[in-house]
Amino acid sequence: MVEQVNKLIFNTLCAGRDIYIPQVGSLVVRCISSSLQSSKRLVPPRYRVTLTGEQRGESLVEIIAQSANVTTERAEDIYRQWLNAVKREGVVTIEDVGHIEDKSFNISPQLHNILNPHSLEPIVLKPRTNWGVVASLVATLIGVAGVIAWQLLPAKAVVETQDAPMVVEVEKSDSVVEQSVVVEPVQAIEPEIEVVAEVVEPAPAAVAPEPEIGTLTKGKSYIVWGVYSQIENARKYKELVESRYQDISCTIYHYKNNTLYMVALAQTDTRSEALGITRSLKERGKFFEQLWVCTL
Fold this sequence. Notes:
about 25% strand, five-stranded mixed beta sheet, alpha+beta
C-alpha cells in the first residue's frame, strides 16, 4: 500500500502537477527560467519542487480515491495508514520522491532526473560581432563623407536622383546658396526612407481570437487532463488531445480563483458518472493514465 501511494505522488509530480498532502503541505512543481550567470555563461532552465503550507493542486486523498476507485472515506483511511508508515520523528520520507523535514523538501535524484533530463551545467556563449552596430557606424561614416563631398563640389556638379541625373548650378560667391543646394539631394532620397518605414511597421496581421474560457459550475464533475499557470500551455495540450482523438473535444476552464487554467475532457452531473468515463478512457491506453476527476 505504501509503495502504491508513493508511486501516485511520483507520477503526479513527473506530470508537472502540484499535489496537496494533508497535514504535511503541498509539493509544487515550478520552472526556473534560464538566466545569465555572466556575459559568457547561460544557466539553462530547470524544474524544481518546493514545499508550501498552502493547499495547492489536487489532494492526495482525492487521487487515491480515483486511482483505487474507492469512496473518499476509504481513501482517507488509506492515506492515514500511509502517513503513519512514512513519517518518523517529524520527517516524511517518500521513496523515489524525497523527504520533508523542517518545513522544507529535499528532492530525490530519481525525481530530479525525470524533471531535468538534460544537463544543468551553465552553457558557454560564443561571442559574436554585433553587425547591427557595425552597419550603423558604416552608415554614419557614409553620411559624413557625403556632406564633405558636397562642400567640395565644383561650380557645376551632377546630382544622382532616382529618376535621372540633373545638373545643379552652384554659386561659389554666396555661402547661403551653397547651403540650399545641399538640401536638394536629401529630399531626393526621401522615398527610400518611406519604404524602410513600411517594412519596419508591423502589418495588422490577423491575431488569433481569444478562445472562450469556461467557468466551473458548482455541483458538476470534470474529467481533468491537466492544470496550467499559462494559457498557452493549456491551449497546447487541448490541441494535442483533440488532434490524436477526433471524438474528444476539450474545454479550458478558469481554475483556482481564475489564477490557473484547467483542461477538461468532459463535464458530468455526478461524480460516479465522471469516474466511469475516466476508467473507460484509461483503458484506451497510457495517453490517458494521468486523468483525474474534479468535483466542485
